[in-house]
Amino acid sequence: MIKAIIFDLDGTLVHTEILKAESYAQAIQILTKGSVLQKMVMDSFGKYVGLSRAGVVDGLFEEYKKPLSEHLDGLDPDTVKERIIKSRLAIYHQMLNDKTTLSGHFCKYNLELLRRVHKDSFRTVVATMSHSFEADKVIEAMGIRGKLDFILTSDDIVQGKPHPEIYLKVKNMLKMEPAECLVIEDSLNGIKAGIAAGMNVFAVTNNLTRREVHAANILAPSFIIDDPKELINRVCHFIVENR
Predict the structure, then answer these.
(1) pLDDT tens-digit profile, the chain (243 residues)
(2) Is 224 in the same domain as 172?
(3) Which structural domain range is residue 97 located in?
(4) 9 in helix, strand or coil?
(5) Dist CA 111 CA 232 (whole Å)
(6) Torsion 47-128-154-200 (CA) sign
(7) CB 166 within 8 A of CB 156
(8) Among the three residues 50, 85, 101, which one is the final residue of a domain in this structure?
(9) Structure pTM?
């Protein structure tokens, strides 16, 4: 029996993954003085969705090491990565402070599911690779804090997704078995984390994650939702079937 619904945040309840991708793309374009275009970073960002900040920066540094090294000559790799993070965070926090921009990225149907399962007395949790400062700002903007039992962020764990640590910690805090938990994710890394934790997982894909999720072939098609309008019916049907 399903007793808890665990939601990823970025790309699942709000399309901040797009904003994150744009912030990294802008930062790298600036740091390489335009030799790496924003579109190049955006096109390759899908494989980094769901990773911790360190994981994203490590991946992007390796991918664009040559132009970054050429334009930040003399700096060691760790310093270059710090420059990427500093530049990118300044851009991203500016985006988060723009309430109009942020509200335009809310995932309507996914949020509706959260509100419905909360109303039906399921335990509801957010488990995200965002840091707590950013997660708190986004959750406050969406007005869902009162509908959540608790929130876990990358600050609460050692190993980020695709490692299952965050979902295992949720399970322990809820005092539930993995089979009693249903995860809603958008990214391949998040899906892997949920599966590794032994939980039921639904993927609600978006433009950044769709190709990676389908290509991985680790979820049955019935658990992959490309049209968010189908999410509520599919999830509620699954819950009823597993009473």
Answers:
(1) 999 999 999 999 999 888 899 999 999 999 999 999 999 999 999 889 888 899 999 999 999 999 998 888 878 999 999 999 999 999 999 998 888 888 899 999 999 999 999 999 999 999 999 999 999 999 999 999 999 999 999 999 999 999 999 999 999 999 999 999 999 999 999 999 999 999 999 999 998 899 999 999 999 999 999 999 999 999 999 999 987
(2) yes
(3) 17-101
(4) coil
(5) 10
(6) negative
(7) yes
(8) 101
(9) 0.86
